[in-house]
Design brief:
The protein is of the alpha+beta class. It contains 4 helices and 5 strands; from the N terminus they run βαββααβαβ. A hairpin with a 5-residue loop joins strand 2 and strand 3. It binds iron/sulfur cluster (2 copies).
């Protein structure tokens, strides 16, 4: 019997520009009302010395993410992955994504419950 693969999203937030395209793409794909959706781009402000601040973005799926099953069943990439111009997000088998994750810091692997 062949092994069943679990699928997930690998998010490389080092290159996230905070453009919110992933959030908008998900909202459009599933007609989410304002304030709801399968992914949320979080702003993180780090305090630096001398009163300076560093702004970074962390896109992270929510409990509403269905991993775009209607799209992936047809061989299409998830809407958020397709619309991320920075190529921050990768959809795939968890075991492959976990190997990719070891190659650099600032990555998170998300797997739906
Ligand atoms: S995988 Fe699909 S459902 Fe999940 S956040 Fe991306 S666009 Fe939304
Ligand atoms: S589309 Fe890509 S670059 Fe834009 S906020 Fe989402 S993850 Fe970041």
């Amino acid at each position: 019997m062949s092994k069943k693969h679990e699928y997930g999203l690998l998010i490389d937030y080092e290159y996230c520009t905070g453009c919110y395209s992933c959030q908008v793409a998900c909202a459009q794909e599933y007609n989410w009302p304002a304030g709801m959706g399968g992914i949320r781009v979080n702003e993180i402000i780090q305090k630096l010395p001398k009163g300076k601040h560093y702004l970074t973005y962390l896109p992270f799926p929510t409990e509403l993410c269905v991993l775009c099953k209607p799209r992936t069943k047809k061989g299409l990439p998830p809407a958020c992955v397709k619309h991320c111009m920075s190529g921050c997000m990768t959809y795939g088998a968890v075991e492959d994504l976990a190997k990719e994750m070891t190659k650099k810091p600032r990555m998170v692997l998300w797997v739906p419950k």
